[in-house]
Amino acid sequence: MIAALRARLRRRWPIARQLATALVVIVITNCVLIFVAMTLWTSNEERLIKENASPAAQRALAALEAGRVPDFNGIDKVIKELDELTDTVNQRGNTALLICLLFVAICDFVLGSIFLAKLARALNDVAFSARRLADGDLSARAPLVRWASVEEAQLIDDFNAMAQSLQRAERELAESTAAIAHELRTPLTILRGRIQGTIDGIFAREEEEMRSLLLQVEGLGQLVDDLQTINLAKSDRMILNPDHIDLALEVERVIALIRPDLEAAGLEPVLLLRPTAVVADAARIRQMIGAVLSNAQRYAAGSGPLRISTARHGGWAVLEIVDHGPGLPEEAMDKAFDRFWRAETSRARHSGGSGLGLSVVRAIAEAHDGTATLANHDGGGAIFTLRLPAGIAPDTA
């Protein structure tokens, strides 16, 4: 798309070249009009002089045109009559010149108006579409006018891209708002029902019941934290505390905490860890690793080995997590990192989580100038790859 836009822009002229060309055309037009007008006027004046001359002067002029030498009396007549007509000819010449200049000015005005109207049309279209956007019509787009200059085409393309981004942001906001309402509705309904039942004496105030309510509250807290992380990353306001850390060591720390949960889900961590130095926020890195492993625990449960490796490739520190679950459909690869997206087999909240885990992972990775990707691999299952700019180990700094 970008290549096509550049090719289209190369076929257009810059506005400075268009204005210079228009100026040259107008100047040439002026010269042609003046030359034609003065030629016609001169021919007409010569005809009038011949028609109004005396017979002797006419014979002398005819002799000159034929290449003969007129008699002395004829020449004298021509000189005297031309002297008498000089003032009249000059006056008519000045009048003809003024009329010619007026005509040329009108032609210049018409040509300039046509060109400037073309320029104003593109700007008016953008202004009109901008007013539609301001009125809430996010589908407004400015059409690309014919013979638009490079600058006009770029302005229109940029405006339409902005309008498309606004429309996409509005759609994402509406979808996110609906998804957040859906995510909050279930735990809030449970909390309200249980608390009301406890107040009414329907449920006993037992420790197990309180723990169940606490789990719902923790789930709400995690949802709020994930939303805050994504919003901070989107607005470039995420605060990081970077330090020299070993990516392999952070993986070991996370595995030590959640290994029992992974094994209970039928996953056996297989660690292939090499010391990999990075400069990053250790807490955020552990948050990313935990989110990816929780995602594998949900979607690849019972699939056996879960290979986790760290290594350095060129200037990148790479973390790979490979499961042997069902993987994802190809059309779902780009959506896996979208907010509130869940695989079809796990739409329910109780099994599919909030749908924010991988969104948080990508947000944190990009805040570290890294990347996070998800793909299927030949052995079956999915492979998650995290790439972060490699750092220098503290002992070699």
UniProtKB/TrEMBL annotation:
SUPFAM superfamilies attached to this UniProt entry:
ATPase domain of HSP90 chaperone/DNA topoisomerase II/histidine kinase, Homodimeric domain of signal transducing histidine kinase
- Location(s), subcellular: Membrane
Q: Where is the HAMP domain?
A: 117-171
Q: Which Pfam families match?
A: HATPase_c, HisKA
Q: What class of enzyme is it?
A: transferase
What SMART domains would the database entry show?
A: HAMP (SM00304), HATPase_c (SM00387), HisKA (SM00388)
The GO terms describing molecular function are: phosphorelay sensor kinase activity
Under catalytic activity, the entry for this protein gives: ATP + protein L-histidine = ADP + protein N-phospho-L-histidine
Cellular component aspect of the GO annotation: plasma membrane
Q: In which broad location class does this protein mainly occur, judging by the first location in its UniProt entry?
A: membrane
Keyword Transmembrane helix assigned to the entry: answer is yes
Keywords on this record?
Answer: Coiled coil, Kinase, Membrane, Phosphoprotein, Transferase, Transmembrane, Transmembrane helix, Two-component regulatory system
Q: Which residues form the Histidine kinase domain?
A: 179-392
- Does the entry feature the keyword Cell division, yes or no? no
Q: What is this protein called?
A: histidine kinase
Q: Which organism is it from?
A: Sphingomonas leidyi
